[in-house]
């Protein structure tokens, strides 16, 4: 099993393995190319960077990620400028998802124990954003969270727990503001 396969399966992986070092360097190279080029030429670079970029999706630079290949973006989704992915885990963005500017996806966390943190121990849990969700600008989506289908995350929210489908959440920590009645909308 490759180190990337381990990462995607949520298993411990060796971030210093040659495969992972090469993947990080490739992501850095691609992000530099994107930053230094006209947006009309970005699509092939995004496709090389991400594990998947669905048909009709649009990503605006700048963007930050560590690996890129662990990020999967569905069809007809939009990621605005300034998105950050700490992607030492699988991060999945569904179809028809809107992601506002400067949204941060934090797949990593560290132990509470300060001695363990000295060894840079990290714990990774995947993040999933289901179809038709909308994440407002400057929101922070923390490790292990699933944003349910059609949910709306308010600007600046810090999401620590799963967001049920058809709900609007906001605040720090994010809480349900109301349920969306899809029959009336």
TrEMBL record:
Record's keyword terms, sorted: Acyltransferase, Repeat, Transferase
Official protein name in the record: Acetyltransferase
Domain Maltose/galactoside acetyltransferase: residue ranges: 4-55
Record-linked Pfam families: Hexapep, Mac
Keyword Acyltransferase: yes
InterPro entries: Hexapep, Hexapep_transf_CS, Hexapeptide_acetyltransf, Mac_dom, Trimer_LpxA-like_sf
Keyword set includes Transferase: yes
PROSITE patterns in UniProt: HEXAPEP_TRANSFERASES
Signal sequence extent: none
UniProt family annotation: Belongs to the transferase hexapeptide repeat family.
């Amino acid at each position: 099993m490759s180190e990337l396969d381990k990462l995607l399966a949520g298993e411990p992986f060796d971030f210093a393995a040659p495969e992972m070092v090469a993947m990080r360097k490739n992501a850095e190279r691609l992000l530099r190319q994107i930053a230094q080029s006209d947006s009309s030429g970005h699509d092939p670079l995004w496709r090389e960077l991400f594990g998947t970029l669905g048909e009709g999706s649009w990503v605006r630079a700048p963007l930050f990620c560590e690996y890129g290949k662990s990020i999967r973006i569905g069809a007809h989704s939009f990621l605005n400028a300034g998105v950050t992915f700490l992607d030492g885990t699988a991060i999945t963005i569904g179809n028809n998802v809107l992601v506002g500017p400067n949204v941060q996806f934090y797949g990593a966390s560290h132990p509470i124990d300060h001695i363990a943190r000295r060894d840079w121990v990290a714990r990774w849990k995947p993040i999933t954003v289901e179809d038709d969700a909308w994440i407002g600008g400057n929101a922070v989506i923390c490790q292990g969270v699933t944003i349910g289908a059609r949910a709306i995350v308010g600007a600046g929210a810090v999401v620590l727990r799963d967001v049920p489908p058809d709900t609007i959440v906001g605040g720090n920590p994010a809480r349900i503001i109301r349920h969306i009645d899809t029959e009336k909308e």
